[in-house]
Write a structure and sequence with these properties.
Blueprint: H1 2-19, H2 23-26, H3 29-36, E1 45-49, H4 78-86, E2 124-129, E3 132-137, E4 143-147, E5 164-170, E6 173-179, E7 199-208, E8 211-219, E9 228-236, H5 253-259
Parallel strand pairs: 4-5
Antiparallel strand pairs: 1-2, 1-9, 2-3, 3-4, 5-6, 6-7, 7-8, 8-9
Length: 264
């Protein structure tokens, strides 16, 4: 009788265990799969924007409309036109003195995306990690997490300086989608504005061992009548390591710029 009761108890417990869900095995399967899968291309290394001479056929400099892919200026809305006219950049053909400029980074505010790539030509280190790609910028030690584990952007994102970034692989190209910005940054060194509806898509591709390209598309219907963007080339810097560049340690970015005699 005791053996019969014990067997009945074990059978019931087994049936109950089979019927219960197993969260560890069933939750977020896409995330677990993405984290387990190695990236198709390793983007790791320290990279710096190429110093190759600009295309002579283009009318702008590396500082003016640095992300524009044509000779045409970005197609701004009237709101953006007014904001752009009020911008007083400190670099490029329309530059003014540091004391006159209203460039946000002169007060050590974060540069945002995509302008983070333009600040003084500072290098960036990229690391491939399970479920994400990590970007470490020498400028003010900014860290950018690009999640490649299949997650979506959180709902009701608060506006931030660098936005929220997710990524996916399309063949050998990392496609980065970033939203959730505030409206306090410039898109480039020339002072092109944006709203909190800014949507930035970057396509990073390692075309060979020593060359990385970044194609950027900027969408913001309140500021621009159509998408615009551009193409940047980065060169691998073997043996380089990121230095320490702390904007606040120079009181302001403008003070640091004066000390460095034009930067790197």
């Amino acid at each position: 009788m005791l053996k019969w009761l014990l067997g009945l108890t074990l059978s019931a417990a087994t049936a109950l265990a089979i019927s219960l869900p197993i969260p560890a095995q069933t939750s977020k399967p896409n995330v677990a799969k993405a984290q387990a899968a190695p990236p198709p291309v390793d983007l790791s290394g320290v990279w710096r924007r190429s110093r190759r001479p600009p295309d002579k056929a283009r009318k702008y400099t590396i500082y003016e409309l640095a992300f524009s892919i044509t000779n045409e200026k970005p197609p701004m809305t009237p709101w953006a036109e007014e904001k752009f006219k009020a911008a007083k950049p400190n670099v490029g053909p329309n530059s003014v003195s540091i004391t006159e400029s209203n460039d946000p980074i002169l007060k050590c505010f974060p540069p945002g995306v995509p302008r983070i790539y333009l600040v003084r030509g500072e290098p960036v280190e990229i690391e491939n990690l399970p479920g994400r790609v990590l970007m470490l910028f020498e400028y003010d030690h900014f860290v950018r997490n690009i999640y490649t584990d299949g997650r979506e952007h959180p709902k009701d994102l608060p506006g931030t300086w660098m936005g929220d970034s997710t990524g996916k692989w399309e063949g050998d190209t990392l496609v980065v989608d970033t939203v959730g910005f505030n409206d306090k940054t410039w898109l480039d060194n020339d002072g092109h504005p944006h709203t909190e509806d800014l949507h930035v898509v970057e396509r990073l591709r390692r075309v060979n061992h020593d060359t990385l390209t970044i194609d950027t598309t900027i969408e913001d219907p309140k500021a621009y009548t159509k998408p615009w963007g551009g193409h940047a080339i980065y060169e691998l810097k073997p043996g380089w390591s990121l230095g320490e560049m702390i904007c606040a340690d120079n009181v302001t970015y403008g003070d640091m710029q004066q000390k460095s005699e034009g930067g790197k």
